[in-house]
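Chapter summary example.
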Amino acid sequence: MRALLQRVTEASVHVDGALVGRTGPGLLILVCAMPEDDADTARALALKISKLRLFKDEAGKMNLSVLQVGGSALVVSQFTLAADTSRGNRPGFSGAAKPDRAEALYLQFAQDLRDLGVATQTGQFGADMAVSLTNDGPVTVWLDTAD
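The structure predicted for these 147 residues follows.
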């Protein structure tokens, strides 16, 4: 799985003008399932993210995890993280998992975060979403479970 994490003071996602998910201070997580991913991959990524020290401690150093600061997460599916730009000018997305499998892994990943104690909301899989955020830092981190 691939994930792009952004430390945020707030983030929200709307579909057709209606709010479907939001987070206060915490993480906006854009996530993409790849064909070789399974439930174990989703669980491992959730565990890694729950422990990743991206938040400032009292000395201003990034030493605290989202769990330690009581932060929350907004998880948004984004197949474009699988973009192949190696040829031409139009990205290819055949490297992403097929939609039915991708949706199941996306939902599994969000549930795994919840199970680890991170308050988590989601966007709407497959929808045309409007995502808003206030990036904190900015802090943006790319994770790929294949690495």
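To summarize the output: The longest helix spans residues 99-115.
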